[in-house]
Write a structure and sequence with these properties.
β6 and β7 form a beta hairpin. The protein is 29% helix and 27% strand. The chain has a seven-stranded antiparallel sheet, with no helix packed on it. Strands 8-9-10 form a three-stranded antiparallel sheet, covered by helices on one side. The protein is globular and about 60 Å long. The protein is α+β, with helices and mostly antiparallel strands.
């Protein structure tokens, strides 16, 4: 009997604990959490605007970006034509500390088409993110691609520059998206959620896939008790990731 009573107490305690972990959000809250706050990821530079490349030794080079070569989606070489001397220069990405380039018009047009191709985007993303006139910021980071390869330096595009004080999120050029469905060529319904990013907190940079989000929730957000109480791991979804990073940063910074 004592064993049954103890088992019942444990079950009730677990149920109570689980109930505490669940938060029911209003439709307005969910809509807000589903809003995509990261910048768009771009792969093709504009050859018509002046890019800036800052080397590890502090040397600054400005010019028109004529070529960006990549392997496995990551940049390994950049070529620019000096804006003053017109001299062609090529840089190994491992020697570059930071880079600011502008996305090409062709890629922006393609992203606008993709935006209108999914109904979900209308309520969760800003079209201006696809047509940005601002430069794209790349930072040299040491990372293991998909957490499988040996650590290596890559120039990675920062996509949360407005709230990267604690957690920096980088574009994964090879990321896939969740699937949706379309009828008779109409805009896609559902899907379109990016499945992976590279994420840095402290000195750790990792590839974060949606399937591993819950396992890494405590590492990302667990040091802020107020945040965890408001957005417990059992109540949030991967779709809310950009909002969660933004909100965690705001609540942690006070």
């Amino acid at each position: 009997m004592k064993f049954k009573a103890l088992l019942l107490a444990l079950l009730l305690s677990s149920a109570f604990s689980f109930a505490q972990d669940k938060v029911k959000y209003s439709k307005e809250d969910i809509k807000k959490m589903e809003t995509y706050l990261f910048n768009e990821g771009f792969n093709i530079p504009s050859p018509k605007k002046i890019s800036t490349i800052i080397m590890k030794d502090g040397t600054v080079n400005k010019g028109y970006c004529s070529k960006v070569d990549s392997k496995r989606g990551q940049i390994y070489e950049i070529a620019i034509k000096d804006s003053a001397t017109k001299k062609q220069m090529t840089f190994n990405a491992e020697n570059v500390s930071e880079m600011y380039i502008y996305p090409s018009n062709a890629e922006k047009i393609a992203k606008v088409g993709k935006y209108f191709g999914n109904i979900r985007n209308f309520g969760t993303k800003k079209l201006t993110k696809n047509t940005t006139a601002e430069s794209i910021h790349f930072i040299n980071q040491t990372v293991s691609l998909k957490n499988k390869k040996d650590d290596k330096e890559f120039l990675m595009q920062l996509i949360n520059p407005e709230f990267n004080d604690i957690i920096s999120v980088y574009y994964d050029p090879r990321a896939k998206e969740t699937g949706g469905f379309s009828v008779g060529g109409s805009p896609q319904l559902g899907g379109g959620v990016i499945k992976s990013y590279y994420v840095k907190k402290g000195h750790k940079v990792m590839w974060l896939h949606k399937d591993d989000f819950e396992d890494n929730y405590d590492f990302l957000f667990g040091d802020n008790a107020e945040f965890v109480k408001k957005y417990p791991k059992k109540s949030v979804e991967w779709d809310y990731f950009s909002f969660l990073v933004s909100q965690y940063t705001e609540m942690t910074n006070g």
